[in-house]
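Attaching the record inline, Q. Sequence:
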Amino acid sequence: MQKIRKEYIPNPDFDPQKVRTASSAAEGLCKWVQAMEIYDRVAKVNITKIAKQTCASNLIWIAAFRLEKTIFLMKIINIHVSPLRKHVILNHFLREALFFPS
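Structure, as predicted:
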């Protein structure tokens, strides 16, 4: 592909309209070579974009997994803290009743 880009594509005589005068087969071959050069250029750009998109998707998946793990751990902590919270509230009301009777 480097040889095509270096020698043929910049050449002003490598034009399907100019080559047509020689033969229709040469015109078709010229169009095919130009199309393959464009395809190669676009494919390289798309491969880079797909790789970046895949990497970003993986990072999002990892972040979502970490979030789910954190939510799960918070639920476990809440299960253990909930009885303690009830105990603290109960003690608060008992202390209020003992120290500040109505």
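Helices lie at 2-8, 16-19, 24-99. Residues 2-99 form one domain.

More tomorrow.
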